[in-house]
Amino acid sequence: MLRFVVRRLMLLLPILIGLSILVFLWVRALPGDPAAALLGERATEESIAQVREQYGLDRPVYIQYLAYMRLVLRGDLGTSIKSRRPITEEISRRFPATVELAGAAMLFAVVVGIPLGFFSAKRHGGVFDNASLVGSLLGISIPIFFLALILKWLFAVELGLFPTIGRQSAEISIDHPTNFYVLDGIIALDPVATSDAIWHLVLPAIALGSIPLAIIARITRAAVLDVQNEDYVRTARAKGLASSIVDRRHVFRNAMLPVVTIIGLQAGLLLSGAILTETVFAIPGMGSWLAEAIEARDYPVLQGGILFVAIIFVLVNLVVDVSYALVDPRVRLS
Amino acid sequence: MRDRIRWLAGLCGVALVALVAAGCGGGGGGDTLTFGTASDPVVLDGALVSDGESLRVIDQIFETLVGLEPGTTEIVPELAESWEASPDGLTWTFKLKDGVTFHDGEPFNAEAVCFNFDRWFNFKGGLQNSSVSYYWQTVFRGYAQNEDETLSPSLYKSCEAPDEQTAVITLSEPSSSFLGALALVNFGIASPKALTEFKADAGTVDEEAGVFQPSGTYGTEHPTGTGAYKFESWERGDRLTLVRNDDWWGETEPEIGTLIFRPIPDNAARLQALQTGEIQGYDLVEPQDIETIQGDSSLQVLDRPAFNVGYVTINQSMAPMDNILVRQAVAHGLDREAVVNNFYAGRGVVAHEFMPPLVEGYAGDVTRYEYNPEKSKQLLQQAGLTLPVPIEFWYPTDVSRPYMPDPKRNFEAFAASLNGAGFKVTAKSAPWSPDYLGRQQNGTAGHLNLIGWTGDFGDPDNFVGTFFQTRQPAWGTTDHPNNEVMDILNRAERETDIAARTALYQEANRMIADWIPGVPYVHTSPALAFQSNVSGYVPSPVSLEEFSSVTLGDEESGDGEETDTEETEETG
Known about the structure:
Chain A is an all-alpha fold. Helix content of chain A is 76%, strand content 0%. Chain A contains 13 helices and no strands. In chain A, 41% of the residues are buried. A seven-stranded mixed β-sheet of chain B has the order 10-11-12-1-13-21-14, sandwiched between helices. In chain B, strands 16-20-15-19-17-18 form a six-stranded mixed β-sheet. Chain B has a four-stranded antiparallel β-sheet with strand order 4-5-7-6, with helices on one face. Chains A and B meet through helix 2, helix 3, helix 4, helix 5 and helix 7 of A and helix 1, strand 9, strand 12, helix 8 and helix 14 of B.
């Protein structure tokens, strides 16, 4: 197990080098540059040249790349051109916001999706099954930003049940040692702040979790149907075990194997869906940050942000693979 | 299993109710106002920023020597009670207000004023970059030691403080546009003690990546001015909080005690936040949302007076545009009314001069060119040309500007009207930045191109001076200069008597309209949206809008509180 983990971690290095080169080139291939983005019509040829010179954008690309990698190896991801803050500082603020949102979305997707899939399988062919099939298709097909806007319009604007923006109401001000607002509320022993943070997560989590929800429900249903027809399930029932025990001990556990894999893969989808959800709900996370950086041609942010996201991806997939081995003793990590 | 489901459902229901109950009651309560912005400020130091969101917050914290009458570009006293210029226009003496203190308790005096000016004048290294100190460069042109040869010698020479209440600023050349520029909040006066203690200028330029990394905390944690609001806290991405300055020298005490700015980049999200009451106002309203807001009785739209101009550039370096008859034909061949009426959602007015009506120097009586395609054809024939006359007309893609929300539609309408007026238009386009902007500036964007300008400060020099005082490839004036126009603009800039100056700019505008270096076609009014119970917010053409005059009425009635003023009148 340990060798497996170490080997996977060592793969990180070539992945990151390759990715950093790709991102570096891609970002510079975008039309427009930060100079013109910063200055707009006020840009004169001189001022554009001045700005480009200040940010070293007039040097050959490979020199810029080497200079950047030297910074990265020192643990410094550079400074944002637009906000002039260190990128590592921005990440430490924005990453928890995205993780909190993605976590809430995944929680929603799992807590609703697995039972949904399970009961669809148990009553397969029936009304509930068909209804959840249609629901899943809708969930996968509706664009996230559209769903987000509809949810906001219905539940926030028309019904006034939920807030539309941000992570916390304007009246609440507590310290944020971890930048996970729910956790910070618990640490501060402030139930109002904690429930306020949760309240702000509900709509975004539903919007973002809609696709994973649909997928998890379908996969669970398929997995349960599969497992239910296995010999060992029939044996267990024949032995006279109560239906609920059979479901829990044999069906459910074995059906979870493919579902766990899917949940891990969904992590990637969540991060990309977060871009749209965070923008619509004005949540200051990694997604909205990268989206704004593209518009502003903020190269350091795009480079640093994408590298960071890539590292997270690799780590998450590693965790998924390891957990797969933990759940299924038959799996040998090789 | 069934029991478990019921139990689970019950738990969810209880949790939901608890959440909703805990969360209800959002929005501004009491004397708090939350304002939705398009993004976070960059830094709260006016000398180092040029973006609107930074300046919006800075405007509440800092004050300048002279100010503007709210809603106009008329110069009025602010931190300086009065001022006068020497006859040669080089020495400006400002008499400062007495008894004003900075937020940290330090006294506001002439020494502090000179400290600030000298600080800006002595910027070095990365601070001299135009993306940092753009406004100093625009107004004062250069620094004590220019590190870039494209910078001109500085207009600012020195500042003296003969006594506590008198500041004397000496220029290297006479200029009266500098007074209007002083109203810019970029020249807000900050506490010298705070600037030094919190290292406002400190930072390193990364040798390898070239980015200026600020290392002081002045602009992010300790911005210290004399304004009606003091900085309290700033959580990036979430909110920036200001509180009322109880020692403010202003005549009326601000009613808003706590001012919160929340960045909401998405336009639709801003509108929805206003509708739910999570914010009480926001800026940069999309034209398509205005109808929705106007139709909602709990909301209101405020218009900002027009301070921009959209125009069609004529490049006289490209024949036959150097022929006045051809330019007149272009002016008569553009159907400006149709474009403004159809593509600006009712927020535009047809322009006839290169500056908006409320800027001093607007003539109002310049030659007008009504849309008349037949006349265009006659003029072209008079010029000895065979019809149709082929021309290249450029427009930008991937962009929306306040004076030009949809460049392509403007272009298509203009091209169609020109094609019917004896021209044959070849359409050309490029992405806005950097291609289109670069081409437009160095004169390689065809015979005609679409562009515009939003004023920085309420001075005619900032409009017509920027365009026509120097020879520029964009207009083709490098090859075909108009010496009379340049001459009158030079004289106007040096004229210190306001009435004479205004007359000179008016004359310049008449000359420009006859010369036709381009065809201005629109001024637009950006809009702000507020809840109906917010009153006292005065939109300013240069977006200098103070919250110190804002009052919040009752949510139900939607009226501003009138009782305070009535009581004062009775007892006073």
